[in-house]
Amino acid sequence: MPPFVSIIVPCYNEETTIRHLLEAVLAQTYPRAQMEVVISDGLSTDRTRDLIADFQKEHADLSIYVVENLARTIPSGLNQAIRESRGEIIVRLDAHSMPIPEYVERCVSAHEANKGDNVGGVWEIRAGADTWMAESISFAAAHPLGVGDAMYRLNAKAGAVDTVPFGSFRRTLIDRIGMFDETLLSNEDYEFNTRVRESGGTVWLDPAIRSVYFSRSTLGKLAVQYWRYGFWKLKMLKRYPHTLRWRQALPPVFVLSLFILIVLSLLVGMARYILAAQLSLYIAVLAAAGLKLTLEKRNGFLLIGLPLAIMTMHFAWGAGFLWSFVTSFFTVRKYG
Question: What is the mean pLDDT of residues 219-224?
Answer without folding.
Answer: 95
